[in-house]
C-alpha cells in the first residue's frame, strides 16, 4: 500500500492533527537549521578565490565601526518584527484566533529568518568572492606582484586570519538577505493583516505596510557605504531574503488579494473572511452589485 504523500503515514497517530495545525515540524526545523548554519558559518572555510593586488574594487578601507552592526541588524530584522506582530495581533486579532494568529505569524518569521541565514552563509562560502575592503584585510607584502593573479596564502601578512577569511564572504550580502527575510516578511504580513488589496481600504495602509521594506533597503545600502559589499552583493542578498520571506509567508497565509488574507490557512476557528461588500444606506445594494450595475449603465 502506498504511503500518503501528504501525511507520510503520520495520520495514524492521535497527535497528528495537533502536529499539523501548530506546525510542529517547523518548530523542529528551526534549531536544526540553526545548528547546520553554525557549522557553515563558524567552522567551514570559504573558497579562496585568486585576486589582483592592485584591483581598485577591493582596495577600499576597512570600516571599524559599521553603520548597522550584526547585533543591531538582528534586532531590526527579527526582534522588531516580533514586537510589531504582537502589537498588531493584540489590536486587530479576533479573540477567537488571536493566540493562533500570533503564534503562526511569529513562527513563519523565524522560519524565514533562519532558513535564509543558512542559504546565505552556504552561498557565501561556496562563491568566495572578495569584499571591497579585502586588500585592507590582507595587508599584502610590499614586494607582492601586481597585475597578476595571486593567492592570499602567498601574499597576505595579516595575523587576523578570521578577518581575512571573512573577506571571502561578500556574495550575497548577509545583512541584506537577513533584513529582507525579516522586514520583508513583516511587510507582507502587514499587507495581509491590513487588507491592503481590499477595494474599500485606503492607500495609507499600503504605505504603512511598505515601511519595513524601506528599512530593509536602507540596511542593505549601508553595506556599500561601509565597503563591506559590492552593489551586486546587496541586490542578490535582498532578492534571496525576500524570496525566502515570500515563501515562508505564503506557506501560512492566503494571497494578499484574498478576503481572508489575515487568517492563517490552518486556522480552524470560526473567524470569517471579510466580505467584499458593504450595504449601501440609500439603496440596500451590496458593493459588488453596485459595481456591476454601474458597469452595465
TrEMBL record:
Concerning its family, UniProt says: Belongs to the PA-phosphatase related phosphoesterase family.
Q: Name one GO molecular function term.
A: phosphatidate phosphatase activity
Which Pfam family, any one of them, does this sequence belong to? PAP2
Residues folding into a coiled coil are none
Q: Where in the cell is it found?
A: Membrane
Task: Spell out the CDD domains in the cross-references.
Answer: PAP2_containing_1_like
Residue ranges crossing the lipid bilayer per the database entry = 27-45, 74-93, 100-119
Protein name as annotated: PAP2-domain-containing protein
Report how it sits in the membrane.
Answer: Multi-pass membrane protein
The highest taxon in the source lineage is Eukaryota
Entry GO terms, CC: membrane
Which biological process terms from the Gene Ontology are attached to this UniProt entry? phospholipid dephosphorylation; phospholipid metabolic process
What positions does the domain Phosphatidic acid phosphatase type 2/haloperoxidase occupy?
107-249
Keyword terms, alphabetized: Membrane, Transmembrane, Transmembrane helix
Q: Entry's InterPro entries?
A: PAP-like, PAP2/HPO, PAP2/HPO_sf
Amino acid at each position: 500500500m502506498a504511503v500518503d504523500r501528504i501525511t507520510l503515514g503520520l495520520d495514524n497517530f492521535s497527535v497528528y492533527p495537533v502536529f499539523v495545525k501548530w506546525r510542529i515540524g517547523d518548530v523542529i526545523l528551526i534549531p536544526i537549521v540553526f545548528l547546520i548554519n553554525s557549522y557553515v558559518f563558524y567552522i567551514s572555510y570559504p573558497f579562496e578565490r585568486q585576486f589582483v593586488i592592485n584591483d581598485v574594487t577591493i582596495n577600499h578601507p576597512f570600516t571599524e565601526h559599521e553603520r548597522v552592526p550584526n547585533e543591531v541588524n538582528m534586532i531590526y530584522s527579527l526582534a522588531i518584527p516580533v514586537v510589531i506582530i504582537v502589537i498588531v495581533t493584540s489590536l486587530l486579532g479576533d479573540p477567537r484566533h488571536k493566540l493562533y494568529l500570533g503564534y503562526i505569524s511569529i513562527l513563519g518569521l523565524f522560519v524565514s529568518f533562519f532558513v535564509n541565514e543558512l542559504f546565505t552563509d552556504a552561498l557565501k562560502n561556496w562563491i568566495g568572492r572578495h569584499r571591497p575592503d579585502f586588500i585592507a584585510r590582507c595587508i599584502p607584502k610590499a614586494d607582492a606582484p601586481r597585475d597578476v593573479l595571486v593567492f592570499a596564502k602567498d601574499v597576505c601578512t595579516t595575523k587576523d586570519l578570521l578577518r581575512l577569511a571573512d573577506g571571502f564572504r561578500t556574495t550575497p550580502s548577509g545583512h541584506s538577505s537577513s533584513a529582507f527575510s525579516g522586514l520583508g516578511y513583516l511587510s507582507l504580513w502587514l499587507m495581509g493583516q491590513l487588507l491592503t488589496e481590499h477595494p474599500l481600504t485606503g492607500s495609507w495602509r499600503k504605505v504603512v505596510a511598505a515601511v519595513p521594506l524601506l528599512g530593509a533597503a536602507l540596511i542593505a545600502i549601508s553595506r556599500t557605504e561601509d565597503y563591506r559589499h559590492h552593489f551586486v552583493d546587496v541586490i542578490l542578498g535582498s532578492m534571496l531574503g525576500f524570496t525566502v520571506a515570500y515563501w515562508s509567508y505564503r506557506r501560512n497565509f492566503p494571497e494578499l488579494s484574498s478576503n481572508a488574507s489575515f487568517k492563517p490557512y490552518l486556522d480552524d476557528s470560526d473567524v470569517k473572511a471579510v466580505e467584499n461588500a458593504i450595504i449601501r444606506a440609500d439603496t440596500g445594494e451590496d458593493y459588488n452589485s453596485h459595481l456591476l450595475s454601474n458597469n452595465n449603465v
